[in-house]
Amino acid sequence: MNFSGIGFKLAGLTGELPFFYSSKIKKKLVTELAGKKIYFKKKILSTQDQIKILAQNNAPEGTVVVAKEQVKGKGRAGKAWVSPPGGVYLSCLFKPKNISSRDISRVSLAMSVACRKALEKQNCPGVLLKWPNDLYLGKKKAGGILCEADIQGSKVNFLAVGIGINVNTKKLPPEAISLRLFFGKKFSEIALIREVLYQTEKYYLKIEQNQFTELLADFKKHCFLWGNQVKVDLGKEVIEAKAEGIDVNGYLVLRKKDGLIVTVSSGQVNKLSV
Ligand code: BTN
Which of 53, 64, 65, 89 to mutate to test the pocket of ligand 1 (most atoms within 8 A of CB)? Predict the structure, then answer.
């Protein structure tokens, strides 16, 4: 890794490092960990790839990479994440002490609840969740979270939490929406980044402290899938079933047509119209 001047040379695209942007975020940030070190880039390939490189180079817990635009933004299940200017794109590094590999699904749900809360605090009420990590406004996706873990056996070396929110973006794919398009006004990206970091840390620490029950109830309350017929793409298999809820691990509980209950730890869920 190459350090230079006041900033930090990040891999990927070259570009300036407007130091003021990171300090603007930091100014009113009241976190213990998240954002203690913030790297900002105007244009990057992917903040998620960058945070993983930083993690492998011993970056401290709470390191954050923020970009105004991503050229190769990554979504879940190998999909691309369209990341034009106007959105919030950030990745945060956590180094858990008390979270094992079997808790990853819990972390993932915790991050969804955290982002929903952050949006609510920034005057964006009514955000709905789609298991495991999608943020919806009405019937369209307004944001997504990519939780990746570096694991050795049951030990989690680090977690890279990538968050993408369509904030002031005007041009998006038809299935997506931005806060601006939905609420009809502009939002402060910096204020939202601060709130997201605050809530993300708060909910991450809840999982570290094994406080999952309340958070699970919060997720259940705001997820719009319950009682609906869904199609779950597991990669090698596609299941059609009714979404019934989530279990104590954060896995999705499904009831098949023959009455058989199955749980899945990951997968792409789509609501079937009935
Ligand atoms: C999804 O819903 O598929 C997850 C989308 C996650 C996108 C964010 S944007 C910041 C971070 N960098 C990436 O390349 N991806 C995540």
Answer: 89
Does 4 score more than 80 pLDDT?
Answer: no
Higher pLDDT, 242 or 4: 242
Average pLDDT over residues 187-201: 97
Residues having CB within 6 Å of any atom of ligand 1: 46-48, 70, 73-76, 79, 81, 89-91, 133-134, 144-146, 162-164
- The sheet that has 261-264: what strands, in order across it? 261-264, 252-255, 238-246, 229-233, 268-271
Distance from the alpha carbon of residue 111 to the mean position of ligand 1, in angstroms: 13
Going by CA atoms, what residue is nearest to atom 15 of ligand 1?
74
DSSP at 185: S
Cα 172 from Cα 180, distance rounded (Å) = 12
Range of lowest pLDDT (16-25, 36-45, 217-226, 239-248)? 16-25
Ligand 1 atom with the shortest distance to the CA of 83: 9
In angstroms, rounded to a whole number, what is the distance separating the alpha carbons of residues 146 and 114? 13
Our CA dihedral for 66, 68, 72, 77, rounded to 10 degrees, sits at 60
pTM: 0.93
